[in-house]
Design brief:
Blueprint: E1 2-11, H1 17-27, E2 31-37, E3 40-47, H2 49-61, E4 68-77, E5 85-87, H3 93-97, H4 108-116, H5 157-164, E6 185-189, E7 192-194, H6 197-209, E8 214-217, E9 222-227, H7 231-241, E10 249-252, H8 255-261, E11 262-263, H9 266-273, E12 279-284, H10 290-293, E13 298-302, H11 307-315, E14 320-325, H12 337-344, E15 350-354, E16 366-370, E17 373-378, E18 388-389, E19 397-399, E20 409-412, E21 415-418, H13 428-444, E22 451-455, H14 461-468, E23 472-476, H15 478-490, E24 496-506, E25 512-520, E26 525-531, E27 534-535, H16 546-558, H17 568-571, H18 575-587, E28 593-594, H19 597-607, H20 619-625, E29 639-640, E30 644-646, H21 648-659, H22 664-690, E31 694-698, H23 705-717, E32 721-724, H24 735-747
Parallel strand pairs: 2-5, 8-15, 10-13, 12-16, 19-22, 22-23, 24-31, 26-30, 31-32
Antiparallel strand pairs: 1-3, 1-4, 2-3, 6-7, 6-15, 8-9, 9-14, 10-14, 11-12, 12-13, 16-17, 18-21, 19-20, 20-21, 24-25, 25-26, 27-28, 29-30
Helix pairs in contact: 6-11, 15-24, 16-18, 16-19, 16-21, 19-20, 22-23
Bound molecules: zinc ion (ZN) (2 copies) and fe (iii) ion.
Fe (iii) ion is lined by residues 478, 482, 502, 505, 699-700, 732.
């Protein structure tokens, strides 16, 4: 007989890990107990050596889907007097507080139960301790049924028996339900309400076949759905969503179906099929309806994650559906059933809903895979609100984030809890979602803000929100926050070469920053160099009208002579329009200065006539990247002064290339290569001057796969230590984490 003290670290709390350990212990006749620690789970296990080994093996092999075991430490202790195995109650309420599991897609066992368990035949909201809604239905902690939106549904005798049977997979599964007692679907169409689930499913599949559009309640909000191969349906959906230019996400029947339409490597397949079921950006190889991706090579693909998705695909012949977030333009996705009827009543041909409330709105998460790592671009369903462990105590620090693609972050001890994706705070509905969600987090996580960190931009709504709290506040420079976010993710607390590139961020000199080489640690930074400032004629207008920035760059290289350039970009432009911009540039009227890397991409995309106007954020850089070809090493000339990097020569050479009718693919690729080489060269110079060797890459520009797949290896080959973001977005969705760790370090 041996006794072991087993300590398991990682994401093992609040996800049914203790009941899992209990069942395993019973199976192997192990005595002792399991309880939660502040940073994991501790098990005292006493049995024969053989049983203990099997117990440990299966603990790793069969751990609940949502758990992430980081470390297991075992220690032999002297045997005690145990004649049973127990789950010891939480001694301290605080350890029950900060654990809310992200939502988990339906598991295979439940999909089987849906065929075999008489009370759950085709039950479309089936779930168990290993799967189902979590965060989206949690109103309060501890995570018990009464504190979730399952509260109004009283368990039937059968469900209760399973819920109370510790050997059952549904033991303490809070959302446990069945056909008899659980929430039910309903369908509204043309003034009719259908309650019978079989009829709902039949009508729905009939509608999909006929090219209709359905508003469809998901786990974290409504989707709009239609057949992704039916151009008529997709283009109609695009019109109905208004001003929406973003590619639509598509849900495939299964992995084989994804492979028919897109290139999928084994890592991408793993992410697609993981329990989180995010949207994965993939390279398309077979056309969907043209209005799905609007000419981009990349599609956002995901697989079924709710039981009803599986049931639906069984009924229809289509193997791929558009499943785009149910909102209008920039508004948050709709979660409320009444709102859905109000907004979608006139848009959609039918609304499919179920009578359980979505308490915490979560969008589908978006990830991409490159240079060997999963990269989270939008962190929401399946990821939030799992914490990030931090080096410094972040207790009581609220970080309010940036403005576009906002997330905020609260601090609990050594855990940063980054909110789910909120969105663009300039939209009034999104701002309301933001303020409501901060309040929800305060209650859910028993969080009381004592210190607030915010962006330096005085006009960001997140800044105003921070200052209105009337508590101690710390302004954080945007690009410093990007670097700190990446440092926090990798547990770095020392001086680094920070390469912080994006479209825009407030600079303390009053200009717009966005191509920053920083010498940065957590509590301070020095700006080493950046791209030369360029005037943005029309100010904010340039983000939707990249042609303006292109003119400004040409003006910078050629002066007023640009008018005589014999290139299509100039000759096709209305003379009057051009004169107005030149006038503004001459007289510096509404021409803020920017060093934003995103603006350089915009300018090249416009100059090569790839994109003069944009319909969604970062469209021009995305279109430019999608033209790159992998097999070209050429680049343009760039001149480096002490503090600035000038692209004058590059523009002259690009004009040359245009004169020689060089294909845009070549120009786009040469530009990308130039960009990569520029970062490399400056990094080398910084290293030789300062001895710093860690390069930290962050900012939205590094969502560019072409750049990352070449820049990282180039730096690594030259013996740099390179850090980039993967679990936290490198775009402004990750800013709040950086703000928070900077504030924590400064507070020290
Ligand atoms: Zn399950
Ligand atoms: Zn039941
Ligand atoms: Fe940014």
């Amino acid at each position: 007989m041996i006794a072991l003290k087993i300590k398991i670290e990682g994401l093992v709390q609040g996800i049914g890990f203790r009941p899992f350990v209990y069942r395993l212990a019973k199976k192997h006749q192990i005595n002792g107990y399991v309880h939660n620690l502040s940073d994991g789970v501790e098990i005292i296990a006493q049995a024969e050596k053989k049983s203990l080994n099997r117990f440990l093996d299966e603990m790793v092999k069969d751990a609940p889907a949502a758990s992430e075991i980081q470390e297991i430490n075992t220690e032999v202790i002297s045997p005690g007097l145990f004649n049973d195995f127990t789950i010891s109650g939480s001694t301290d309420i605080s350890d029950a507080i900060t654990e809310i599991s992200p939502d988990i897609s339906v598991c295979d066992d439940c999909l089987k139960d849906m065929r075999t368990q008489s009370h759950r035949i085709n039950y479309p909201l089936i779930n168990c301790t290993n799967c189902g809604p979590r965060f989206t239905i949690t109103r309060d902690l501890p995570y018990d049924r009464v504190n979730t939106t399952m509260q109004p549904f009283e368990m039937c005798d059968q469900c209760r028996a399973e819920y109370e049977d510790i050997s059952d997979r549904r033991f303490h599964a809070q959302p446990v339900a069945c056909n008899k007692c659980g929430p039910k679907y309903e369908m509204f169409s043309g003034g009719r309400k259908i309650m019978d689930f079989d009829r709902i499913l039949n009508t729905l599949s009939d509608y999909i076949r006929k090219g209709k559009i359905i508003a469809f309640k998901g786990t974290g909000g409504y989707h709009l759905m239609c057949d992704a191969l039916d151009e008529h349906a997709v283009s109609r959906l695009r019109k109905l969503k208004k001003r929406e230019g973003k590619p639509f996400a598509v849900m495939f029947r299964n992995l084989d179906a994804v492979r028919e339409f897109a290139e999928v490597n084994s890592s991408e397949a793993e992410i697609l099929t993981s329990w989180r079921k995010p949207i994965v950006l993939l390279e398309m190889k077979k056309q969907l309806a043209p209005s799905v991706a609007l000419g981009l090579k990349t599609i956002g693909a995901f697989l079924p994650y709710m039981p009803i998705h599986y049931l639906l695909f069984e009924k229809i012949t289509a193997s791929v559906l558009v499943l785009t977030s149910g909102n209008l333009s920039d508004e948050p996705i709709i979660t409320g059933d009444e709102d859905a009827r109000e907004v979608f009543g006139t848009i959609a041909d039918a609304i499919i809903s179920y009578n359980r409330e979505i308490y915490n709105r979560t969008d589908d998460s978006v990830v991409t895979f490159f240079s060997g790592k999963e990269r989270i671009l939008r962190r929401s369903r399946g990821y939030a609100p799992a914490p990030v462990m931090t080096l410094h105590n972040v207790e009581g620090i609220l970080a309010t984030g940036a403005e576009l693609v906002n997330c905020f972050c609260i601090g609990k001890g050594y855990q940063s809890i980054l909110s789910q994706h909120i969105g663009d705070l300039k939209n009034i509905e999104t701002y309301r979602f933001y303020t409501e969600t901060v309040e929800k987090y305060k209650r859910l996580f028993r969080f009381n803000p004592l210190l607030v960190a915010h962006d330096m931009h005085p006009d960001y709504f997140s800044t105003r929100y921070a200052l209105e709290l009337n508590i101690e506040s710390i302004p954080v420079q945007h690009h410093h926050a990007h670097i700190a976010s990446c440092m926090a993710e990798h547990g770095i607390d020392e001086k680094v070469i920070g390469v912080s590139f994006d479209g825009t961020g407030y600079g303390p000199d009053g200009n717009i920053w966005g191509s920053e080489f920083l010498l940065a640690d957590l509590d301070s930074f020095e700006r080493y160099s950046h791209f030369e400032y360029i005037a943005l004629p029309g100010g904010d207008k340039v983000t939707e009208e990249p042609w303006r920035t292109a003119i400004s760059y040409l003006y910078n290289s050629f002066g007023r002579e640009l008018k005589h350039l014999d290139i299509p970009f100039i000759s096709l432009m209305e003379g009057k329009k051009l004169d107005l911009i030149l006038e503004a540039l001459d007289k510096k009227i509404n021409c803020p200065l920017s060093s934003g890397a995103g603006r350089l991409f915009d300018a090249i995309a416009a100059l090569t006539n790839i994109c003069h106007f944009t319909k969604f954020h970062a469209e021009a850089p995305m279109r430019l990247e999608s033209l790159t070809t992998g097999s070209l090493n050429q680049r343009y000339e760039v001149s480096h002064q002490k503090e600035t990097i000038s692209f004058k020569e590059m523009f002259q050479q690009i004009i040359e290339d245009i004169h020689q009718e060089t294909p845009v693919e070549i120009i786009a690729t040469k530009f990308h290569n130039t960009f990569i080489y520029t970062i490399f060269r400056v990094s080398l110079r910084i290293r030789s001057e300062t001895g710093l060797n860690k390069v930290v890459l962050s900012g939205g520009t590094f969502q560019n796969k072409y750049i990352m797949e070449r820049l990282e290896p180039l730096l690594i080959k030259n013996k740099f230590e390179v850090f980039s973001q993967n679990r936290i977005p490198c775009n402004d969705g990750g800013i709040a984490l950086g703000q928070q760790v900077i504030a924590a370090k400064m507070r020290k």
